[in-house]
Amino acid sequence: MSTIFLSPSRYVQGPDEMNNIGAYAEKYGKNALCLISNGGYRRQGAQIEASFAQSGAAVVFEHFNGECSMTEINRLVGVVKEKGCDVVIGVGGGKIFDTAKAVAHYVGCPVIVCPTIASTDAPCSALSVIYTDEGVFQEYFFLPANPDLVLMDTSIIAASPVRLTVSGMGDAMATYFEARACFRSEATTCAGGKVGVAALGIAKLCYDTLISDGVKAKIALEAHACTPAVERIIEANTLLSGIGFESGGLAGAHAIHNGFTVLEECHHMQHGEKVNFGTLTQLVLENVPEEELSDMLEWMIAVGLPVTLAELGVTDTSREHLMPVAEAACADNDTLHNMPFTVTPESVYHALLAADAYGRAALGQ
User: Fold this and answer.
1) Quick check: 331 pLDDT over 90?
2) Distance (Å, whole) CA 71 – CA 328
3) Contact call for residues 174 and 278 (beta carbons, < 8 A)
């Protein structure tokens, strides 16, 4: 099997970059569909309109309905065709990006991703995570190309709720451990090849950046400051994690996240928060040395990520309640099978219980 490395065509990160969205967009099309939430339009709509007014392109806004489902994707494909748009822009968070990428694929036009938060590694990937209309994980939809442009306005991201960037750290921290597992098992990555040294190196750099700058960035963000540590964490959450997971592969952490989507009480939790507990569970499955487990628990707690089931909203830890999570995580079409050993619903169930126990012990509960 060949090594395959993917990345977006262009990645731009810096303060006030949203002011330039019109100038960037006109390089790809003349009539842009901007997919954005109602709240996002209230916050950034005027800024985007002002930028397009100074460009040679027009913009049409369409509000996102909340889930990256085939129902929503098909609706938006119809809107793009009706409005005659030739470029799609997704402004907001992960489900908006994934929807925009899928819509652009189906209509055959360029896509620009403009995160207003740094909560996931979705912006850079040639992948859309498809959910049902009710928010339950359905499938990974692999796309033939990465976004044409990823535009990160760090002024906007630094002003977003701190919890969202911290959640992004949880999503990003899984990158190295999943890539390491895929490297050991010689699994096929999301890019369709095996893990190369470049992807594994980027995944390790992502880990190192989170360790060195994660707590500093959280404290700075709580003071509404955009510091070099914040800039580095935004890049780690988005670019390093995005390239690292796609070309390095997914394994236990994200599969266990997908398992948690069957529990309604977890739906209010952020993607990266559930992934973080998935990382902890994967480390239990791997039976990593006590020092590595303790170091990760210490970091997770220091940045404010959940390390217990109760913190995810799960108070019923009975076998009857948790076994559906384990079974969903082990689905044939999910990535838990990329681990370098056989994993079963039974072993995942016990790892969930143990991860919760380790988390409670680290919290002194």
Assistant:
1) yes
2) 22
3) yes
For residue 66, give both structure tokens.
């909340």
* Active site (annotated) includes residue 148: no
Contacts of 37 (CB under 8 A, 6+ apart): 63, 64, 92, 96
- Give the gyration radius of the chain's Cα atoms: 20
Sequence length of the chain is 365
pTM over 0.85: yes
Choose, from 98, 105, 121, 257, the residue flagged as catalytic.
257
Instruction: Tell me which residue of 205, 170, 204, 175 sits closest to 190, measured CA to CA.
Output: 175
Is 321 labeled as catalytic in the residue annotation? no
pLDDT in tens, 98-154: 999 999 999 999 999 999 999 988 899 999 999 999 988 899 899 999 999 999 999
Buried b / exposed e across 234-258, counting CB within 10 Å, b at 16+?
bbbbbbbbbbbbbbbbbbbbbbbbb
Residue of 121, 148, 254, 356 with catalytic role:
254
Per the residue annotation, which of 148, 171, 213, 356 is the catalytic one?
171
148, 271, 334, 356: which one is catalytic? 271
Nearest to 226 by CA among 18, 14, 43: 14
Which residue is listed with tokens 């019923």? 316
- Pair 91, 44: CB distance under 8 Å: yes
